[in-house]
UniProtKB/TrEMBL annotation:
Interacts with sigma-54. This is Nif-specific regulatory protein. Residues 1-21, 511-569 are annotated as: Disordered. SUPFAM superfamilies: GAF domain-like (SSF55781), P-loop containing nucleoside triphosphate hydrolases (SSF52540). The keyword rRNA-binding does not apply. Residues 228-456 form the Sigma-54 factor interaction domain. The gene is nifA. One of its GO terms (biological process) is phosphorelay signal transduction system.
Length: 613
């Protein structure tokens, strides 16, 4: 059925209250700006703009046509005095060819009498406009920046042969079209963002469903620890124990050297436990004195001490229902151990400055690298507290006992560095071999430090073995390993019952023993190339002391005294060398066969003040 034309509006009667000329144009722009600033629905907003133009100007009909963002086709988005269906679809319903010409050229168009222009013949026949009707057609492009995104056109009653009125209306319409262009662009940006968010949400939901399906199928294999890198035999054993312990409420003690990842294992244990949806709270017991540690763990009420302006929950209250990780628990004093024992045994405590007893349900995971058994025997650690926290013990192996995890850990740290800094670095084969040859006495923490440092200082896209600091006498791993050769029963308990070695192995690894900074070689000594074979090479012999050196250390046995073995000189030998060199560390280093860095470390270790001559 053919759409029926809408009868044209009659010429408006003069409005005695309407402001004339420029004032009327300003009122029109003000009213339209208010409408566009609160636009929520674009179609309704555009129709309201046409209503304002009809109210303040002698507008007979009006239309707003917008170009499709992708195809660029121009279609009528809003019209006044004409049905929407007729304006968009019916032949001759709207002079769309004229609007397309304005849209493509970006030029304004003013036709004083539509009846005299053949381009409007089909439109006038259908719209019922007689040749005697004096109707003008004005059309301006709608711009968003430098781009034309549509047209705004109106039909108004022609007032006479003067073109002044048409020029004024064109200027007003151009300003209105600019306001419309900004609003349309904003709506399209919001629509595109919303579409992207919906697509992302759908993709994440699909991924979550796939993960849940995979989790259901892998339920019999136990939870996965994707955040923990390394699947060697040593770590697999630890993770199997974590899976077994996580389902219970038993307290757990994590033992291991510093830097082995005790806090990460504690977080993994919490995530796979029934308390995963509850808080996980960490406290470093060695970082606070007893008074502050008590307030931190138990909280305080207002006025409990100077500066307590209000009440504060302690870590036990915050972790209620979840897990509390007490790191370095072997560092707390015997006085505070008694206070901690009650809350661990009874689950009850009082805030500082309060007499009200509070009850909490918290699972305790403690960690230490000290030998608690020796501390209990010496009376510095309470035996009852030891038995309370040491129900299940998990010993984390040092990195030297799981060399198969060094490469995946190094690549993980490098990938994280690339993500944080926008780089695309990689390892060469000789760099990987160099990493495998090092024992890393600082464990995973030292490995992360090493990778971050070399990734920061490297100049190319591939990290070579020569880029590591140990090749430039900048690594102290060998010294750290030799200085830390005391028994390590603090990690595994009395008698080495946990299977850990009773002493650190020599740190004469491939990258540290051949580097000036780690092996203690004298200045000018050229290190041999690092072998690809991960077997640690022998330490190069130390050269004889200079002939002009006298004093307590002259002619002494190099083993245990000097730099070649990595051991620091004794106090008397060091003072004698410093006195002979005029307290210049570089000269004393040459006398002792050490590096200046080792001499400085020895001075600090023996607490020898530097004399200023």
């Amino acid at each position: 059925m053919e759409a029926q034309p809408v009868p044209p509006a009659s010429p408006p009667s003069p409005d005695l209250d309407a402001p004339p000329g420029t004032a009327r144009s300003m009122v029109t722009l003000y009213e339209i700006s208010k409408i566009l600033s609160g636009a929520l629905h674009l179609d309704r907003t555009l129709h309201d703009v046409l209503n304002v133009l009809a109210a303040f100007h002698d507008m007979r009909r009006g239309a707003i046509a917008l170009a499709h963002p992708e195809s660029g086709a121009l279609t009528v988005a809003a019209c006044l005095g004409l049905s929407a269906d007729a304006g968009r679809d019916a032949p001759g319903g709207y002079p769309i060819d004229v609007a397309v010409q304005v849209h493509r050229t970006g030029l304004r168009l003013a036709v004083a009498r539509m009846a005299e222009d053949p381009r409007f013949a089909a439109y006038l026949d259908r719209a019922g406009v007689l040749e005697s009707d004096r109707v003008s057609f004005l059309c301006v492009p709608i711009r968003a920046g430098d781009e034309s995104i549509g047209t705004l056109s109106v039909e108004r009653w022609w007032s006479g042969p003067s073109e002044t009125s048409l020029d004024d209306d064109l200027r007003v319409l151009s300003m209105v079209a600019n306001l419309i262009g900004q609003t349309v662009r904003l709506h399209r940006v919001i629509a595109a963002d919303r579409k992207t968010l919906l697509a992302d949400a759908a993709r994440m939901e699909k991924k979550a469903r796939a993960a849940r399906a995979a989790g259901d199928g892998a339920a019999d294999r136990g939870p996965r620890f994707s955040e923990i890198v390394g699947r060697g035999p040593a770590m697999s054993t630890v993770l199997d124990k974590v899976r077994q312990v996580a389902r219970t409420r038993a307290p757990v003690m994590l033992r291991g050297e510093s830097g082995t990842g005790k806090e990460m294992i504690a977080r993994a244990l919490h995530r796979v436990s029934p308390r995963a949806d509850k808080p996980f709270v960490c406290v470093n017991c060695a970082a606070l004195p007893d008074t502050l540690l008590e307030a931190e763990l138990f909280g305080h009420d207002k006025g409990a001490f100077t500066g307590a302006g209000g009440e504060r929950k302690g870590r036990f209250e915050i972790a209620d229902g979840g897990t509390l990780f007490l790191d370095e628990i072997g560092e707390i004093s015997p006085a505070f151990q008694a206070k901690l024992l009650r809350v661990l045994q009874e689950g009850q405590f009082e805030r500082l400055g309060s007499s009200r007893t509070r009850k909490v349900d918290v699972r305790i995971i403690a960690a230490t690298n000290r030998n608690l058994e020796e501390a209990v025997a010496a009376g510095t650690f309470r035996a009852d507290l030891y038995y309370r926290i040491n129900v299940v013990t998990l010993v984390l192996p040092p990195l030297r006992e799981r060399p198969e995890d060094i490469e995946p850990l190094a690549r993980h740290f490098l990938e994280r560095f690339n993500e944080e800094n926008g780089d695309s670095l990689g390892f060469s084969e000789d760099a990987v071999a160099l990493l495998r040859a090092c024992a890393f006495p600082g464990n995973v923490r030292e490995l992360e430090n090493c990778i971050t440092r070399v990734a920061t200082m490297v100049r190319g896209e591939v990290i070579q073995a020569s880029d590591f600091s140990c090749r430039e006498a900048g690594c102290l791993s060998a010294i750290l390993g030799r200085e830390l050769d005391a028994p390590t029963q603090a990690v595994g308990g009395p008698g080495g019952s946990t299977g850990l070695p009773s002493a650190h192995p020599p740190m004469d690894c491939g990258r540290c023993a051949t580097a000036g900074g780690g092996g203690g070689a004298p200045a000018g000594w050229t290190p041999p190339p690092v072998p690809i074979d991960p077997t640690p090479p022998a330490t190069p012999p130390r050269p004889e002391p200079p002939e002009d050196m006298d004093g307590p250390g002259a002619g002494a046995d190099v083993e245990g005294d000097g730099g070649g073995s990595g051991r620091l000189p004794d106090r008397e030998r060091l003072i004698a060398a410093m006195e002979k060199s005029g307290w210049v560390q570089a000269k004393a280093a040459r006398l002792l066969g050490l590096t200046p860095r080792q001499v400085g470390y020895a001075l600090r270790r023996h607490d020898i003040p530097i004399k200023r001559l």
